[in-house]
Design a protein that fits this description.
With 149 residues, the protein is of the alpha+beta class. It has two domains: 62 residues, no CATH class; 80 residues, no CATH class. The chain contains five helices and seven strands; from the N terminus they run ββαβαββαβαβα. α3 runs antiparallel to α5. It is globular. About 12% of the residues have low confidence.
Length: 149
């Protein structure tokens, strides 16, 4: 199954003086954890709100600075990027984001057989991890870290 993550920026349009941002987040439970524990404060990383078009464009551009795309291949999440991470960067990702892994470590890989079969973005360097499929806000934070490489 292919999966693409995209940047989300909520922009205030014709709503006066910043009230959209307040009303959009007022409905979120505090501290943004549901009774079934499917949400966490880190999930607030999944969106960004702005009343400035230039800031919204900058946010989207920053999201794709190095990150290209991702997809699940069997149990692994494969993240493709424009620039290959160094060994030091991979070690840093493992240290900083080991909490979102179900098992193993984040590692650099070649295209998977499934990607080779469908010709899916073969030119891009990639990493693979067994993502717990729960901590998407933390995954977004990892993408932000990848964009700083």
């Amino acid at each position: 199954m292919k999966s693409r993550t995209s940047a989300s920026v909520m922009a205030r349009g014709w709503i006066p003086s910043g009230r959209y941002e307040d009303s959009a987040t007022e409905s979120l439970p505090s501290p943004f954890v549901t009774l079934d524990h499917r949400s966490s404060p880190d999930d607030l990383e999944l969106f960004e709100m702005s009343d400035d078009v230039d800031a919204a464009v900058k946010s989207i551009t920053r999201f794709y600075r190095n990150y290209h795309s991702m997809r699940f291949v069997r149990d692994s999440l494969v993240i493709r990027m424009k620039y290959a991470p160094s060994d030091h960067a991979i070690d840093g990702l493992n240290e900083d984001f080991g909490d979102i892994l179900s098992q193993g470590r984040i590692q650099r890989i070649e295209p998977t057989p499934e990607e080779l079969e469908d010709g899916s973005d073969l030119e891009y360097p990639r990493i693979s991890l067994v993502f717990n499929r729960r901590d998407y806000g933390r995954l977004r934070q990892m993408i932000d870290a990848i964009n700083r490489f």
